[in-house]
Amino acid sequence: MEDRGLNKTPSSILDSPSSFPFLGLPHRPPFVFVREIVSCEPGRSVSARTSFSSDDPMFAGHFPGDPLVPGVILTEALAQAAGIAAASGYPDTAKPLFLLSAIRTMKFFRAVRPEEQIDLQAEKLGQMEGLIQFKVIATVRGQAVAEGQLVLSEAANFARGPE
After folding, report:
1. Can you give the pTM of this predicted structure?
2. Are residues 64 and 57 in contact, defined by beta-carbon separation less than 8 angstroms?
3. How many helices, marked H, and strands, marked E, lie in the chain?
4. Burial class (CB in 10 A: 0-12, 13-18, 19+), 46
5. Element (H or E) spanning 81, and its range?
6. DSSP strand E in the chain: where?
7. pLDDT average per 10 residues of sequence, the chain (163 residues)
């Protein structure tokens, strides 16, 4: 897959690249959590990476003195990876936007700390009438830290905002 500026040293969510229109994500910084695309089978699957800097503002409150990456942020990073996989099956000029519609299952196996590299995997399980179901897994050093199934829907009439 072409680099397109994603392969940079992971850092704080506040330092994400400024624009990702080619990913098919409706997100913009500071809410883009995918830092690097490792591999992609267009429309089917993606392997990606992320990490969070220990000075990221979210750790001031989650939890002071014992910072943990919130499970909801891990889930969102996995949903973004699934959205990239879904959108990658379309030409850059005609990518629909995909939104998280359902969390079918999500389990967390251990806490993730700041600075840990998180590998994100999303694999399409099926598709029906604008809904796409993905199996997702997050690992740290080969150990599963979160796993589940997410459903994305194609966003109709979604205002993209400035690219």
Report:
1. 0.85
2. no
3. 1, 6
4. buried
5. helix 71-87
6. 36-41, 45-50, 98-108, 118-128, 131-140, 143-154
7. 41 40 73 92 96 95 96 98 94 87 98 98 96 98 98 77 53
Tell me the residue length of the chain: 163
Q: Which residue has the tokens 């993730």?
A: 112
The torsion region of residue 43 among left (phi > 0), alpha (psi -120 to 50) and beta comes to left
Report pLDDT digits (tens) over 3-26: 444 443 333 333 344 435 457 778
Rounded to whole angstroms, what are the CA distances from 80 to 44, 61, 63, 150?
14, 24, 24, 11
The first and second tokens of residue 88, run together, are 């990658």
Please confirm whether the linkage preceding 30 is cis (ω < 30° from 0).
yes
Q: Known catalytic residues?
A: 62
pLDDT > 90: percent of the chain? 69
Mean pLDDT estimate for the chain: 85
- Rounded CA gap, 57 and 12, in Å? 9
* Per-residue DSSP letter, 156: S
